[in-house]
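Journal club prep, notes for RB
We'll compare a predicted complex against what the paper describes. Inputs for the HT7 case:
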Amino acid sequence: PQTIFRKDYTPPAFLVDTVELGFDLHPERTIVANRITLRQNPASKRRDIVLHGEDIELVQLRMNGQLLGKDDYLLDHATLTIKKAPAQVVLEIETLCAPVQNTTLSGLYVSNGNFFTQCEAEGFRRITFFPDRPDVMAKYTVMLRADKASYPVLLSNGNLIEQGDLDDGRHYAKWEDPFKKPSYLFALVAARLVCQEETFTLADGRDVLLQVWVEEGNLDKTDYAMQSLKNSIRWDEERFNLELDLDRFMIVAVGDFNMGAMENKGLNIFNTKFVLANPRTATDIDYAGIEAVVGHEYFHNWTGNRVTCRDWFQLSLKEGLTVFRDQEFSADMIGTDTGRAVTRIDQVRTLRQAQFPEDAGPMSHPVRPDSFVEINNFYTVTVYEKGAEVVRMYQTLLGRDGFRKGMDLYFKRHDGQAVECDDFRAAMADANGRDLGQFERWYSQAGTPVVTARTRYDAVKRNFDIILSQRCAPSAGQQDKLPFHIPVAVGLLGASGQDLPLTLEGGKHAKGATTIVLELTEQEQIFRFRNVDERPTPSILRDFSAPVVLEYDYTDDELLHLFSHDSDPVNRWEAGQRLAMERLLKLTAQVAAAGGSDANLKLDPTFINAQRAVLTDETLDAAFRELALILPSETIIAEQMDVVDPQAIHTARQFMRRTIGAALKEELIAQYHANQTPGDYSPDALSAGKRALKNLCLSYLMVAPDMAELKLAQQQFEKAGNMTDRSAALVAMIHSGAATGPYLQNFYEDFEGEALVVDKWFAMQAAAPTTNVAAVRQLMAHPAFTLKNPNRARSLIFNFTNANPSQFHAADGSAYDFWAEHVIKLDAINPQVAARLARAMDRWRRYAPALQAKMKQALEKVAARAKLSNDVLEVISKALA
Ligand code: HT7
Ligand code: ZN
């Protein structure tokens, strides 16, 4: 397959001004009539019109009214080219496609009898021939025609300008989008759906219509999405002075969807998972996900739609920025400092769990990649989450006001344009009179920088020096890395845990500041703090001010001091994670040395006491305590090891959980009862935090439960008034290895008709360390299982391969065969989903030789298939390279 390089970008030869689309919708045979007006691009010397087209049949083509014959154009499996076209062209193109056969869920497809589209990144070319690239922006008018009884609702982007009945029971609707947009933002829906709608008044006094469309029977699950939409609109007005620019904004939920949601102009299409919620079916995490994704897609209206990407290498321009915006939105919605810190800790966990491993693996790429085979493989945690960290660093360096100035300038300069990451950086720099030249390396260099800190205290001169140095390991195509511009937020703690006022030599900081952002720009730099009366404990990288690994030789005492006192909650949590990680690594080594046995393991009382202190400190938010008590995940532990031994990690971590559960039994039971949330369910952060802590207590008590503890879980399951508590009880039971058959059966029967809950039912079994590959195969035989629905495939298969490491890496390699078999099967149905599954083997080279050999065999088995998609081929060949 062909690799596409960023350096090869050329402007389009022709620009498109208007697009008129006519759809005669039939599941088997949809006719698409497309009339586009094109004109030569003065910025290009080329005169060929190149249109993309994939899996569609050309019926007829006219240029400036003239029917074109086969000799007038070149047509292959991917493009239609008209050589030496005149400067002004009207093309009329008629094509055919078969939506019901389209299992890729890209382009126009049928889900549960309804029509939907998904065009990002390159799906529009599966609908009609078009220059399907984001720098071609045009105005669209869309006429939809379909059978009225089967598809009573006809939606597209922008405003509804006409609708009516046709012969033969068909009807039509005409939509017009007043804004220029790239083709990836086109959408249509033709369906039997119902909606919750509301008129909402914008800050400027305009009334807009908001709608959330779902299948009948789900109208009792749309309130939270609607509320989140209204909150998002308000938030963007207040925080960035950005208003909704349309008269109508629609969200439509669909059960078959490759990702979370899609920001099509005025017609956001969502995976049901991020729309539907009521207390009976959705957990606190689901509610938080809905708020974040509704916000994310809404915020794209400015960061992505009004200002879009010049080419797909710039994807993080819209995605990193929009993730940052949705993160800030979620934090502001909680509104408290600890709430903000809790969201920040969650972000750090995601980075460590998924982005750091990606950055160190075979698919490692810069935030702005230099090349790709299949763009769909680059909707990654690096582009999204690391991209958001890069945006966050502007705010850390420039301050909130400075960041806002940069945003204002960005929109002033680029509204209506398709631009590059460099344009965003230039707006930030110019609005603040700063040179951010070196900051560019965050976009161009892959890999996670490692910042090493050393300190020295001079009691006579009362100086405390922090010496920071940085390095970054080589990654594909990038042997030597240049120093990054890294903001390192630092505070110093005195002996009683108080923040010391800081005086940085040469720094210009407010008198009495207790956190200062050091700017590390060289390979090594010394930062000197003056007037320091005692040797302090440094709190480095507060609020996780940069996406780096921080190395500092903390003593246990220093970590315990930070864990008890740091005023920065992120670093307070981090100290606990370091204490736990040191022990987990030692225990893992001991298990491995003892041939897998945990017989002689010990956990020191100091650590247990520190855990006890946090658990019982009721001055701390429950949400924070919960995070402080969760041990680093098996994946994060694995990332710290040179040779990964998944079984030893699991045994060591389980030992630690069991020991904590036994030692703190009394306190865990007390906190379990103290953090009940009686009364009506509410997903607010305070209540969700209490439930999280309570359910963590339960999970500790259930590592090796006695009868009373088992009963506690069973009662919670039976009496729970919401899905958070019900599913937490069931998960605790499954993980404990207790006989759960009747409970699982009962859960399934209660929710058989709720697809999203059935997904949970598969997921919780797949991720349990008690579930082996044979059990997964058995679950696949369940009548509710299908590979065709991405949510369902993910719930069982992905949860097994990605969230159940001790079983996925079973010594006999049987789960690797299972993986290979399903990558191949899925690839024939949906390459995007298959390629995501393929990534489960990314880190295969880090395992012990016996496992490595089996993983390699499985990879080679997939690679040997004759008909692989580019999506899977790219992932597998990079893994094997
Ligand atoms: N911009 C969207 C990314 C996307 C996507 C969404 C649904 C299905 C396939 C997709 N390919 C790319 C989602 C977002 O980041 O908001
Ligand atoms: Zn996005």
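Talking point for the session: The chain has a mean pLDDT of 98.
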